[in-house]
Amino acid sequence: MRAAYFDCPAGASGDMILGALVDAGCPIGALEATLGALSVTGWRLDARPVERAGLRGTHLAVETDPAVRFHDLADLLTPIKRSALPGTVKTRATRILTRLAEAEARVHGVSVEAVHFHEVGALDTLVDVVGALAGLDALGVEAVHVSAFPLGGGTVESAHGRLPVPAPATAELLRGFPVYDNGVRAELVTPTGAAILTTLATPGRLPTMTLEALGWGAGTRELPIPNLLRVMIGEATEGPGGAETETLSAVETTIDDMSPQLYEPLIERLLEAGALDVYLTPVIMKRSRPGIVLTAFGSPGRVAELAALLFRETTTIGVRWHEWQRARLPRELVRVETAFGPVTFKVSRLGGRAVTVTPEFEEVRRIAREQGRPVREVLELVRAEGRRLLDPSD
After folding, report:
1. Are 77 and 97 in contact (CB under 8 A)?
2. Measured in whole angstroms, how far is the alpha carbon of residue 377 from the centre of its chain?
3. Tell me, what's the pLDDT at 243?
4. CB neighbours (10 Å) of residue 306?
5. What pTM, to 2 d.p., does this model score?
């Protein structure tokens, strides 16, 4: 499986992602051809070599006509729906832009439909998103991984006035991903960069791969560190059954003196803090005392946060951790129009084929309640329709 790893020591933005992909070997003509399928005018790509703090990279500027604007999410998605873009590009672009709108809606306390795009909703955002997907496809990338994100600091001017860094929408998009402070007082991760990478990528360390290409995408400003985003592309080592592999950390503690009522809120807080899975195992301890082993799985960058939460929220005075290798099928969330209305599916693929198509259970339960039908019946019907729509070869 061909994989791309985005290393973000100076953050990430839409133009840095495009610059890194072009620098790694994606012909700029491939981006322009895919973007041309949108049938939207008023944009131009300009790639040029630059130097940032002594290191070279490619700066790809997206030049746009300010008269061509998109005011809301429906506006932004219309050219994608009407285009002749490949189905996977349409689906992923829609998901990225929808997540961007959802983040804006949460921070401003309005519905997604009421979000009015400003600096993150103009033509250059559409070009950044579709261009990034086109670049990954042109380089044959099947799986995307990303490092921890530096948050930056200070303030940034926006259409809503002066905002703290990271911008509120960026912070929303980075939920569940490892972040840190690298000491640079500037906006390092933009909402568009965050939306693209957190939608497409798995967080964590560089996966084991045969390195084949490197690309450096340059930001606009000069920073105390090289303002560059690095992408590393190669053939990743496959796990059992042809799945991709990743490294996870298991954070554990053994408890024998805590009220069982406290485990439910504890598990919720661990998941909110970035744990991918949490489970409890009953054990018999010394002197035949019954106890519980609590295990929380997360990315290696989450170990300190998960351990600190266990110390605060439980009676334990000791936490241990170790690393595991996991084989994992690439997955994505896809929203599909079904006979029951729009439903979100979690889709896992192996060799390009959808092997699991699972509807979001809360949406199924809502549909069943609205229609007065058994949940089991609706789940079976929605899953069958989703598989038919998302994997026609089945």
Report:
1. yes
2. 32
3. 67
4. 24
5. 0.68
